[in-house]
Amino acid sequence: MLKSSFSPNLIEAGCDEVGRGCLAGPVVAAAVILPKKFNHKLLNDSKQLSKEKRQVLQTEIKRDALAWAVAEVSHTEIDEINILNASFLAMHRALDQLTVKPELLLIDGNRFKPYQKIKFECIIKGDALYQSIAAASVLAKTYRDALMEKLAQQFPGYGWETNVGYPTGVHRAGIKKLGITPFHRKSFRLLPQQLDIFKK
After folding, report:
1. How far apart are CA 186 and CA 200, in angstroms?
2. In whole numbers, what is the pLDDT of the chain averaged over residues?
3. Which residues contact 21 (CB under 8 A, 6 or more apart)?
4. How confident is the model at residue 193 (pLDDT cuts 50, 70, 90)?
5. At what angle do helices 131-154 and 51-64 cross, to 10 degrees?
6. Which long-range contacts (CB under 8 A, 24 or more apart) does 96-100 make?
7. pTM of the model
8. pLDDT for 26-84, tens place per residue?
9. CA-CA distance, 123 to 2, in Å (whole number)?
10. CA of 4: how far to CAs of 9, 73, 102, 129, 134, in Å?
Protein backbone atom coordinates (compact mmCIF):
# COMPACT_ATOMS: atom_id res chain seq x y z
CA MET A 1 0.00 0.00 0.00
CA LEU A 2 1.38 3.40 -0.98
CA LYS A 3 1.84 6.04 1.72
CA SER A 4 -0.74 8.82 1.80
CA SER A 5 1.75 11.52 2.83
CA PHE A 6 5.38 12.26 3.70
CA SER A 7 4.70 14.83 6.43
CA PRO A 8 1.89 14.98 9.02
CA ASN A 9 0.56 18.44 8.26
CA LEU A 10 2.27 20.14 5.29
CA ILE A 11 0.45 20.62 1.98
CA GLU A 12 2.31 18.24 -0.32
CA ALA A 13 2.48 18.20 -4.10
CA GLY A 14 3.67 15.01 -5.74
CA CYS A 15 5.58 15.54 -9.00
CA ASP A 16 6.58 13.13 -11.73
CA GLU A 17 7.47 13.23 -15.41
CA VAL A 18 7.23 10.85 -18.35
CA GLY A 19 8.96 10.69 -21.70
CA ARG A 20 12.58 11.33 -20.75
CA GLY A 21 13.84 8.33 -22.69
CA CYS A 22 11.72 8.88 -25.79
CA LEU A 23 13.14 9.72 -29.21
CA ALA A 24 10.18 11.91 -30.16
CA GLY A 25 7.57 14.15 -28.61
CA PRO A 26 7.59 16.28 -25.47
CA VAL A 27 8.51 15.44 -21.91
CA VAL A 28 5.40 15.78 -19.75
CA ALA A 29 5.14 16.39 -16.01
CA ALA A 30 2.28 16.53 -13.56
CA ALA A 31 1.87 17.91 -10.05
CA VAL A 32 -0.89 16.65 -7.75
CA ILE A 33 -2.03 17.70 -4.27
CA LEU A 34 -4.20 15.02 -2.66
CA PRO A 35 -6.23 15.20 0.54
CA LYS A 36 -4.18 14.04 3.56
CA LYS A 37 -6.11 10.82 4.10
CA PHE A 38 -6.53 10.03 0.41
CA ASN A 39 -6.20 6.34 -0.32
CA HIS A 40 -6.92 4.49 -3.57
CA LYS A 41 -6.35 0.75 -3.71
CA LEU A 42 -5.60 0.80 -7.47
CA LEU A 43 -3.10 3.66 -7.35
CA ASN A 44 0.47 2.68 -8.21
CA ASP A 45 3.38 3.65 -10.45
CA SER A 46 1.67 4.28 -13.80
CA LYS A 47 4.08 1.90 -15.59
CA GLN A 48 2.71 -0.96 -13.47
CA LEU A 49 -0.92 -0.28 -14.44
CA SER A 50 -2.92 -1.29 -17.48
CA LYS A 51 -4.14 1.43 -19.83
CA GLU A 52 -7.70 0.80 -18.66
CA LYS A 53 -6.78 1.25 -14.99
CA ARG A 54 -4.84 4.43 -15.78
CA GLN A 55 -7.90 5.88 -17.51
CA VAL A 56 -10.12 5.12 -14.51
CA LEU A 57 -7.56 6.56 -12.11
CA GLN A 58 -7.07 9.68 -14.20
CA THR A 59 -10.75 10.59 -13.83
CA GLU A 60 -10.82 9.84 -10.11
CA ILE A 61 -7.58 11.69 -9.36
CA LYS A 62 -8.82 14.81 -11.14
CA ARG A 63 -12.12 14.56 -9.27
CA ASP A 64 -10.67 14.06 -5.78
CA ALA A 65 -7.40 16.06 -5.85
CA LEU A 66 -7.23 19.40 -4.06
CA ALA A 67 -5.27 20.65 -7.08
CA TRP A 68 -3.60 19.11 -10.14
CA ALA A 69 -1.84 20.26 -13.28
CA VAL A 70 -0.07 18.82 -16.32
CA ALA A 71 2.57 20.59 -18.40
CA GLU A 72 4.90 19.77 -21.26
CA VAL A 73 8.25 20.84 -22.66
CA SER A 74 8.50 20.41 -26.41
CA HIS A 75 11.01 18.35 -28.38
CA THR A 76 12.59 21.56 -29.68
CA GLU A 77 13.07 22.91 -26.15
CA ILE A 78 14.57 19.56 -25.15
CA ASP A 79 17.11 19.92 -27.97
CA GLU A 80 17.96 23.42 -26.73
CA ILE A 81 18.30 22.84 -22.97
CA ASN A 82 18.83 19.02 -22.69
CA ILE A 83 16.44 16.43 -21.33
CA LEU A 84 17.37 16.79 -17.65
CA ASN A 85 16.71 20.53 -17.62
CA ALA A 86 13.57 19.96 -19.71
CA SER A 87 12.28 17.52 -17.08
CA PHE A 88 12.81 20.09 -14.32
CA LEU A 89 11.16 22.78 -16.45
CA ALA A 90 8.13 20.58 -17.11
CA MET A 91 7.68 20.05 -13.36
CA HIS A 92 8.05 23.78 -12.71
CA ARG A 93 5.43 24.55 -15.37
CA ALA A 94 3.04 22.07 -13.77
CA LEU A 95 3.64 23.61 -10.33
CA ASP A 96 3.02 27.08 -11.80
CA GLN A 97 -0.53 26.01 -12.66
CA LEU A 98 -1.56 24.64 -9.27
CA THR A 99 -4.45 26.53 -7.69
CA VAL A 100 -3.28 25.56 -4.19
CA LYS A 101 0.25 26.48 -3.11
CA PRO A 102 2.20 23.50 -1.78
CA GLU A 103 4.47 23.67 1.26
CA LEU A 104 6.46 20.57 0.36
CA LEU A 105 7.27 18.98 -3.01
CA LEU A 106 7.71 15.23 -3.36
CA ILE A 107 9.83 14.64 -6.45
CA ASP A 108 10.17 11.28 -8.16
CA GLY A 109 13.86 10.64 -8.75
CA ASN A 110 17.16 11.77 -7.25
CA ARG A 111 17.55 15.32 -8.66
CA PHE A 112 15.50 18.49 -8.85
CA LYS A 113 16.00 22.19 -9.46
CA PRO A 114 14.56 24.21 -6.54
CA TYR A 115 11.20 25.85 -7.13
CA GLN A 116 10.18 29.15 -5.48
CA LYS A 117 12.07 28.32 -2.27
CA ILE A 118 9.57 25.55 -1.48
CA LYS A 119 11.07 22.63 0.44
CA PHE A 120 11.37 19.43 -1.54
CA GLU A 121 12.27 15.78 -1.10
CA CYS A 122 13.72 13.71 -3.95
CA ILE A 123 12.51 10.12 -3.62
CA ILE A 124 13.91 7.36 -5.81
CA LYS A 125 11.05 5.23 -7.14
CA GLY A 126 8.72 7.62 -5.36
CA ASP A 127 5.89 6.75 -7.76
CA ALA A 128 5.79 3.30 -6.13
CA LEU A 129 5.95 4.72 -2.58
CA TYR A 130 3.72 7.80 -2.30
CA GLN A 131 0.16 8.30 -3.51
CA SER A 132 0.66 11.88 -4.68
CA ILE A 133 3.69 10.98 -6.83
CA ALA A 134 1.89 7.95 -8.23
CA ALA A 135 -1.10 10.18 -9.05
CA ALA A 136 1.20 12.60 -10.86
CA SER A 137 2.72 9.73 -12.83
CA VAL A 138 -0.76 8.60 -13.93
CA LEU A 139 -1.82 12.07 -15.07
CA ALA A 140 1.45 12.69 -16.92
CA LYS A 141 1.41 9.31 -18.66
CA THR A 142 -2.25 9.38 -19.73
CA TYR A 143 -1.77 12.91 -21.12
CA ARG A 144 1.40 12.06 -23.01
CA ASP A 145 0.17 8.71 -24.34
CA ALA A 146 -2.96 10.38 -25.76
CA LEU A 147 -0.81 13.06 -27.40
CA MET A 148 1.51 10.51 -29.03
CA GLU A 149 -1.42 8.40 -30.22
CA LYS A 150 -2.78 11.46 -32.04
CA LEU A 151 0.63 12.17 -33.58
CA ALA A 152 0.79 8.52 -34.70
CA GLN A 153 -2.17 9.22 -36.98
CA GLN A 154 -0.27 12.07 -38.64
CA PHE A 155 3.00 10.16 -38.84
CA PRO A 156 2.33 6.44 -39.36
CA GLY A 157 5.15 3.96 -39.60
CA TYR A 158 6.90 4.63 -36.28
CA GLY A 159 4.57 2.68 -33.98
CA TRP A 160 3.84 5.67 -31.77
CA GLU A 161 0.33 4.36 -31.15
CA THR A 162 1.93 1.65 -28.99
CA ASN A 163 5.52 2.72 -28.20
CA VAL A 164 4.55 6.43 -27.64
CA GLY A 165 7.97 7.53 -28.87
CA TYR A 166 10.23 5.16 -26.95
CA PRO A 167 13.14 3.55 -28.87
CA THR A 168 11.57 0.23 -29.80
CA GLY A 169 12.63 -1.86 -32.78
CA VAL A 170 9.55 -0.70 -34.71
CA HIS A 171 10.34 2.95 -33.98
CA ARG A 172 13.97 2.67 -35.04
CA ALA A 173 12.98 0.73 -38.16
CA GLY A 174 10.59 3.56 -39.04
CA ILE A 175 13.36 6.14 -38.65
CA LYS A 176 15.67 4.07 -40.83
CA LYS A 177 13.02 3.66 -43.53
CA LEU A 178 11.20 7.01 -43.42
CA GLY A 179 13.69 9.41 -41.86
CA ILE A 180 12.74 11.68 -38.98
CA THR A 181 9.57 13.68 -38.39
CA PRO A 182 9.30 17.27 -37.16
CA PHE A 183 8.66 15.82 -33.68
CA HIS A 184 11.88 13.83 -33.29
CA ARG A 185 14.49 15.03 -30.80
CA LYS A 186 17.52 15.80 -32.95
CA SER A 187 19.85 15.93 -29.95
CA PHE A 188 19.16 12.25 -29.22
CA ARG A 189 20.93 9.30 -30.82
CA LEU A 190 18.06 8.18 -33.00
CA LEU A 191 19.74 5.15 -34.54
CA PRO A 192 22.51 2.95 -33.10
CA GLN A 193 24.78 3.72 -36.04
CA GLN A 194 24.64 7.44 -36.68
CA LEU A 195 23.13 7.18 -40.11
CA ASP A 196 22.71 10.32 -42.14
CA ILE A 197 18.99 10.55 -41.41
CA PHE A 198 18.74 14.28 -40.89
CA LYS A 199 18.95 14.98 -44.62
CA LYS A 200 15.94 12.84 -45.42
Report:
1. 13
2. 93
3. 166, 167
4. low
5. 120
6. 96/69, 96/71, 97/31, 97/69, 97/71, 98/13, 98/31, 98/33, 98/67, 98/68, 98/69, 99/67, 100/11, 100/33, 100/66, 100/67
7. 0.93
8. 999 999 999 988 888 888 877 888 999 999 999 999 999 999 999 999 999 999 999 99
9. 13
10. 12, 29, 15, 9, 10
- Asked whether residue 198 carries a pLDDT value surpassing 50, the answer given is no
Q: Which amino acid is at 182?
A: P
Contacts of 115 (CB under 8 A, 6+ apart): 91, 92, 95, 105
Name 50's Cβ contacts closer than 8 Å, sequence gap at least 6: none
pLDDT of residue 195: 47
Q: Which CATH superfamily is domain 12-153 in?
A: Ribonuclease H-like superfamily/Ribonuclease H (3.30.420.10)
